Amino acid sequence: MKKSILFSMLILVTLFLSAPVSAAMDYTAIIERESQWIASLQQPSGAIVMTRNRTVTWNNNEYYKIDPYNANLAVTGLLTNPSPGTVAVARNWINWYLTHLNTNDYNKLNGTIYTYLADPKTGAEYSTNTYDATDSYAATFLSLLKVYAKVSRDTQYLAANRATIESIAGAMLATMQSDGMTYAKPDNQKKYLMDNCEVFSGLAGIAYLESEVFNDNKKARGYNNQRDAVQKAIETRLWNSNTQNYDQTAGVPSSWLTFYPDTVSQMYPIWNGVIPANSPVAKNLYGQLCLSFPGWPSIDTTDNFACAMVSYSAAMIGDQVSVDIFLANVRNRYIDQNHPWPWYNAEAAFAIGAAAMHISPAPPPENEVVPAVMVGAAFLAFGPRRW
Fold first, then answer.
1. What is the DSSP annotation of 184-221?
2. What 3-state class would DSSP assign to 249?
3. In which order are the strands placed within the sheet that holds 56-58?
4. Contact call for residues 295 and 287 (beta carbons, < 8 A)
5. pLDDT tens readout for residues 61-102
6. Quick one: CA dihedral 236, 238, 244, 245, positive or negative?
C-alpha cells in the first residue's frame, strides 16, 4: 500500500513540474539550429570537423579535428531531420569516409580509418596515422549507413560500394574474440561496454544492408547471428550482479560515483538497442543514474561535457521532464552562445535526437509514463530487476 501511495505521489509531482518546462520548449527550433550547425562543420572535401570553436595542436600547428567516430554520430543525428540538404551532407560525409579507408594500416588491417586534421586557413587535411578504435569507428559508420539507406533510398550508390562497405564490417570484427566481444583495437586489447554495444548496432546495420540493399539474405543471417552473439556476451559477461550494472570494461566494475565512463556507459545498451528502453533493467539503470547524478539535466555533473547522449536515452525511457530541462540548458549555454567548446558535433546530434523524439514520441508501453524522478525512486522502492 505504501509503495502504491509513493508511486502515485511521484507521478503527481512529476506532472506538476513538467507543465511549464514542456510548454516553453521549442523542439523544432533546436532541431533546425543544430542541424544547420552540424552542416556548417562540413569541409569542401566532405569531412566534418568536431567544432570550429576549438583547435588541437599537432606538429606545433593548430588544426580542426576530424574524428570519424563523432562525425558518424553527428551525421546519424542529422538524418533525424531528413531533407535534401541533410541527405546531401550525409552522402558527402559517407563518400569522404569511403575514400579515406586504410589498406594495410599500422595494425596490418584493411577497412579502418585514421583520425584526420584540417588546416583552418587552407582547408588542407592531414592524417594522424592513428585511431582510437577499430571496432567503434566501423560500427558507428555501418549504423549510419542503415539510417542513410532508409532515409535516402540511395540504394544504387550503396550497392556500388558494397565491397568497400563489407571491408569496413571486416575491420569492425577484426578484434572479435571467442567470447563474442571485440577489443577496441589490436593495440588496445580491452573489451569496452560502449564499443561492444555499438558493435551490436553496427552488425544490425550491415545485416540490414545485406538484406535490403545487397539482396544477400545468407550474409544477412550471418551478421545477425554475430549480433546475437555480441548481445549474449554483453548480457552474460559484462553484467555485474554485485553492482547491478554493466562493467564498463570486461573485468572492471562500474561505480555509480563516477559519471564518465562508468555511469554514462550504462546508457549505451539502451540507445544502441541491446536492451529495450521499456525493460525493467533499462529503467533501473537510468533511475540509478538520476539518483547518482541528479544534476545531469542542468549539466551539473563531475564531467566537463554535457553528455547529450544521456538526454537521448532519457527520451527513449520517457522522461520528458529531464529532457526539457537539459535542452533548455543546452540552448542557453551552447546554442544561443554560438556553440562554444565543449559542445561539439556528436553532442548536437544527440540533442537533435532527444528533441525529435518528443515531437513525434513513440507511445510508452501500456500508456506508462516513466520520468526520472519516478524511476529513481522506484529503483529504491522496488529494487533492481533483470530483463
1. SBTTB---BHHHHHHHHHHHHHHHHIIIIIS--HHHHH
2. strand
3. 56-58, 61-66, 116-118, 125-127
4. no
5. 999 999 999 999 999 999 999 999 999 999 999 999 999 999
6. negative
